[in-house]
Amino acid sequence: MTTAKQWVLASRPDGAPTVENFRFEEVELPELSDGQILVENTFASVDPYMRGRMNDVKSYIEPFQIDEPLTGTAVGVVTESRSNKFKTGDTVRHFAGWRTHAVLSEDQAEQIDTNLAPAEAYLGILGQTGLTAYVGLTAVGEMREGDVVFISGAAGAVGSVAGQIAKHLGAAKVIGSAGSPEKVDYLTGIGYDEAFNYKDGDVNGQLAKAAPDGVDVYFDNVGGDHLEAAIQNANTFGRIAMCGAIAQYNDTEPAPGPRNLGLSIGKCLTLRGFVVGQYTHLAKEFQEKIAPLVVDGSIKYASTVREGIENMPSAFLELFEGGNTGKMIVKF
Amino acid sequence: MTTAKQWVLASRPDGAPTVENFRFEEVELPELSDGQILVENTFASVDPYMRGRMNDVKSYIEPFQIDEPLTGTAVGVVTESRSNKFKTGDTVRHFAGWRTHAVLSEDQAEQIDTNLAPAEAYLGILGQTGLTAYVGLTAVGEMREGDVVFISGAAGAVGSVAGQIAKHLGAAKVIGSAGSPEKVDYLTGIGYDEAFNYKDGDVNGQLAKAAPDGVDVYFDNVGGDHLEAAIQNANTFGRIAMCGAIAQYNDTEPAPGPRNLGLSIGKCLTLRGFVVGQYTHLAKEFQEKIAPLVVDGSIKYASTVREGIENMPSAFLELFEGGNTGKMIVKF
C-alpha cells in the first residue's frame, strides 16, 4: 500500500487567496489495476490560471472541488507499472500535480526525454507554456514579419518565451513590461529590444516612448492599464491577443474593461481571447518550429524553483506578487 | 452669383449636443471653374458618426471645424456644369451635405440612377450604410451559415439592413434589439426571427431567452450593456463586430469597457472594431451580391424623413433619442 501526500482545496478564496485555502493531507493509494502506473512526482507546476479554478465558476476548465486534491501539470518517475507502455524508471509528464504520488491510467501520462532537456523545460517552454506563447503570437495575434510587438508580464513563463519567438518570427521590435529592474535586465538579456518597469508608473507613456511607431501586436498577460495602453498606442488593424489578466484575478468585483475600447472602432483593432486548449492542433507545428530552438539554446528560458511540496501553496501565491522570473516550479 | 444656405459648427458640445452648437448662415458661392459643377441638394444624411466629428479629436475622420460648414453624404441635382462628366439635370451623390448648394469638382460627385431606386436609398442602403452592414457581418464578424446573430440598434439604418443580410447569408437565427414596441414589430416584419425592447430592462436576460443556444456573431451598434450581454451569451469562438457605440457618444468621461471582457479569454472570443472606410475594396462585392436584392425588394429598408434644411440639426439630435427607424434623412 502506497501513501501519498496531497494538497486539497480547503475553502474558496474571496479576493486574494491565502495558504488557509489549502490543506495538506495524507491518503492511501489503491493497488494498481491492469494498464495503470504508479508515479512518484519530482516537479510540479503552479500557474496563474489555477486561480480561476479556485472559484466555483464554470469556465473552460473545471473548478477545483472542496476537499478534493488539486491538479496541474507535473513530472515524475514511474515506480511501478502494470502497463505495457511504461516501465519502472521512465520519466513522464501528466496532470496529477499537487501530490507526491499518483496512480494513473497509461493514457494519462506521456513519456519525456530528460536527456534532451531538463524536466523543468517539459513543465514550461516545451509544454503548454511554450505552446501558449507560440499560439498567442501566430494564430491569435496574427503576427507578421516587421510588426512591432508589445508583451506584458514579459518576464513570466509565457511572456519570456513569447518575446523570443516574436524575434525569431521576424518582429521589427519587441517591447516587454515587467515589475522590477532585475526583470527588465533579464528581458533585454534574452533578446527583448526594449523593456520597462511598469512599477515606475505611466504605462501608457512608457509604452508610447518605447514604440514611437505604434504597436501592431500586443500579447496581454496582465489586463488593466496595460491593455488600455496597448489600445491607445495600437496602429490601425492592430491585434491584441488576450491570454491572461493576472492583475485582475483576485478582484472580488468584475473589473471594468478598458475605458478606451471605443478607439478599437476607428483603429479597426482586433482583440482576441484564447486558451491554449483550443489550439492543441498547433502543437506539432510548435514542436517542429520552436522546440529545436529551445534544445539548441537559441531560445532561452528561466525557471524559478521552490523546494518542497509543503511550500507549493506559497509558491503559487508568489505568482501574484511577481515572485517568479520565467516558469514557477516546485521541486519535490 | 449663387447664394447657398449652410450649417456651420458654432461650438463644440460638452456631452449631449444641442441646436446651439449649430449656426445657419448664408454664403455666396464662387463662379464655376473648368471641371466643376454646381449642385442643388435635395436630400442629406444625418448619422451617429457625425457626433464624433463635433469633438476636436483626431480620429479616422477629420473633426468638424468651428465656423466651417459641416459635411456628410447628400444627394442633389446638377444645375450648372463646366464638366464633361456631368450635365445639367443629372442626379449625383457627394459629401457636401448640410447646405443647399455646393460647387464641386467633377471627381467629388458620382452619378446615381433614381429610376433604379429612390434618392433616399443612395444615402443609405445602397451607400455606406448598406456596405457597413455587409462588411460588419462578413469581413469583420466572419459570419458563417448556421450562426446565431445578434444585432443591437437593429431598427437603425445599419442594423435594419444587417439583420436582413444575415438571413440572406444563411444565419440560423437573427435577433435584434431596439428601443420601442413599434420598432420591435418593425424588426419582425422585415425578417428578424426575434426582437426585444431593451427599454424593458435586463438586456442580458432578454438576450439569453432569445438565444438559448448562445450567440455566434454580435453586430454592435450600441456598446454598454448590450456589449456585456453579448459577451455573456457568446459561444466559444464567438465574434463581435464593433461598429458603433451610440449609447456612449455623448459621455463626457470615457465609458468603462465591458466588465466581463475577461470572459473573452476562456471563450476565445474575437472583438473587432471597424470603420467602413477601411473596407471600400468590398464595395464591388456588395454591389453584386446585395444591391440587386434591394432593387428587387427582397431586402427592405426604411427611412425616417424630416423636411427642411432648417431642421437638420434637430433631425441629427433625434438620432440619440432613437427618433429614427432606418436611415434618418432630411429632405430639402
Task: Summarize the structure in words.
2 copies of one chain form a homodimer. Chain A contains 11 helices and 15 strands. Chain A has 332 residues and is of the alpha/beta class. Chain A folds into 2 domains: 2-124 and 301-331, Quinone Oxidoreductase, Chain A, domain 1, CATH 3.90.180; 128-277, Rossmann fold. In chain A, the strands form 3 sheets. In chain A, strands 3, 4, 5, 6, 7, 14 and 15 form a 7-stranded mixed β-sheet that branches. A 6-stranded parallel β-sheet of chain A has the order 10-9-8-11-12-13, sandwiched between helices. In chain A, strand 8, helix 4 and strand 9 (173-178) form a beta-alpha-beta unit. The longest helix of chain A has 13 residues, at 128-140. Chain A starts with a strand and ends with a strand. The relative contact order of chain A is 0.15. The mean pLDDT of chain A is 94. At the A-B interface, strand 12, helix 8 and strand 13 of A face strand 12, helix 8 and strand 13 of B.
